[in-house]
Design goal:
The protein is an all-alpha fold. The protein has 2 domains: 2-59, no CATH class; 84-138, Arc Repressor Mutant, subunit A. The chain is 62% helix and 0% strand. The protein has helices at 2-9, 15-22, 27-37, 41-50, 53-59, 84-94, 99-106, 110-124, 129-138.
Length: 142
């Protein structure tokens, strides 16, 4: 847990903790224990946000482009409008989740995931996961 907190603190990346809360793991209890052992502002913030599981997803939005990635969009770039479910699938793809994992996390079938991925690929004008993630990052969708 300590290593996960250190790795996520710099960019305030709460995504790993979001995954734990979806599966019902007592992430709040784990963070509470960590807060008592090694209190830091980041641990305090995560502990407070996970006290109400629904709030962590709204408190910590999607991560932004990594340092060194292009910040400005090329002129004329049209950013596609994604449905809320397509955004969920995109975030799961960015986490490296398999279609089976995504289906389990989102409580849908793998075929539904494949449909959303196909729609994402079409909207992003790509044909594979790595290209979709690169395009999404360049458009600030991740």
């Amino acid at each position: 847990m300590h290593r996960a907190l250190l790795a996520t603190e710099v960019r305030r990346n709460a995504v790993p903790f979001l995954g734990w809360t979806r599966h019902g793991t007592g992430v709040h209890e784990l963070l509470e224990r960590q807060r008592r052992i090694r209190p830091t502002p980041w641990v305090e913030e995560l502990t407070a946000a996970t006290a109400d599981v629904a709030s962590i997803a709204t408190h910590f939005g999607p991560t932004t482009a990594a340092p060194g990635e292009k910040v400005e969009l090329p002129e004329g770039t049209v950013v596609p409008v994604l449905s809320p479910r397509e955004r969920d699938v995109l975030y799961e793809l960015a986490r490296g989740s398999t279609y089976a994992d995504i289906a389990a996390n989102l409580f849908v079938s793998e075929n539904t995931v494949k449909t959303h991925v196909s729609s994402l690929y079409g909207k992003l004008s790509v044909n594979r996961r790595s290209a979709a993630l690169a395009a999404a990052r360049s458009m600030h969708l991740l």
